[in-house]
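Much of our argument rests on the idea that a fold can be written as discrete symbols. Part of our work consisted of pairing the sequence of a single chain with a tokenised description of its backbone. No coordinates are needed to read the tokens, only the vocabulary itself. The record that follows shows the chain in one-letter code together with its fold in token form.
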Amino acid sequence: MVRYLLLYIGIKETICCFFKKDNPDMKKSNRAQAKDRREVLGIIIPNAWDAEGRTTAWAISTYNENLYQIDMRNKIGKQLPEIAGKKVKAHGFIAGASGSAAIMKITDYIIIEDVDFSG
């Protein structure tokens, strides 16, 4: 009984230590995420199609000709095809690469409306 109690206390201390704010591993993880966070400005475009012509992948095409494929595994990624052709400012993290395009997991976005200064 005592042996199991000590084991439980040891596991509990390890878990508590892992979630503490002063844990250097957690700080490193947060710094790494902050470093990989990107802001892109571009237009939502189709990026890949199946044999029947249906779009299978979407991307943000930036004005300096970079292409960020949208990671469709989260809720926001699934919303973006609904605004295809719109200019957006998106924030997210690079989740990998597919060919020449970086795969970006979008965390938030706003639609950019063009401002007409012609009066």
